[in-house]
Amino acid sequence: xxxxxxxxxxxxxxxxxxxxxxxxxxxxxxxxxxxxxxxxxxxxxxxxxxxxxxxxxxxxxxxxxxxxxxxxxxxxxxxxxxxxxxxxxxxxxxxxxxxxxxxxxxxxxxxxxxxxxxxxxxxxxxxxxxxxxxxxxxxxxxxxxxxxxxx
Length: 151
Prior knowledge:
Elements: H1 3-20, E1 23-27, E2 33-34, E3 36-43, E4 46-53, H2 71-83, E5 108-109, E6 121-125, H3 135-150
Parallel strand pairs: 2-5
Antiparallel strand pairs: 1-6, 3-4, 5-6
């Protein structure tokens, strides 16, 4: 991976955070913070950078269950699809966790250096970032809420 591609991927991820604004800037008054790190991957020739919360360091118990399909259920679905000659498609929702339900707890983190934010400012999250213990659950609840509204 070239440094130029990594830098561009970091800038693209930061722009997503600025566009979705899943946080509010608050003064650092000694709040507990969750640390973050960058995860750099290359997928189909494209470099991706993702800011990930290090949720394994969260101290309190957080409900983190989310609906998932078992291997058996997926196997049955694929068997039926093959029998009926259906076409199976998947999708990747970019920045999926930013679409999740709003957090009902306080989670603060230090903004990445590239954000240009003062050292005395923290990001108080409104929505989950990848890596938080309840990230998948919050995303699932947000999707569920929107689907129920659609009928």
